[in-house]
Amino acid sequence: MRMESSVFKKVLSTIDISKMAESIANREVSPVYSFLDSGASMDLQILRQEGPTRNDKLIIMYKEAKRSEKDPKKSFENEGVTAKKVIPLITRDVEET
């Protein structure tokens, strides 16, 4: 999945961020933690296990990171405001052929 949400792009173009996506029981998100420079984009892989069809959501948590920080996970432990964006993920049944 490529993050193409206009709201998310606007955020990316204005600040340097660290990104965190939380993996839930039947979903895996990769990468979970990452640095992303202002104006940059990144591919995000979402793997959903079999289960009932429903509308899911992806919560992206982000905050400004200092250039000196090396570990994106530790970046969230430091002081500073953490913001979030909710992106709807729509699932549907697909018949395999």
Automatic annotation (TrEMBL):
Question: Domain MSP spans what residues?
Answer: 29-78
Give a single Pfam family match: Motile_Sperm
Domain of life of the native organism = Eukaryota
For this protein, the record's Gene3D superfamilies field holds: Immunoglobulins
Q: Which SUPFAM superfamilies match?
A: PapD-like (SSF49354)
Name recorded for this polypeptide? MSP domain-containing protein
Organism field: Ancylostoma ceylanicum
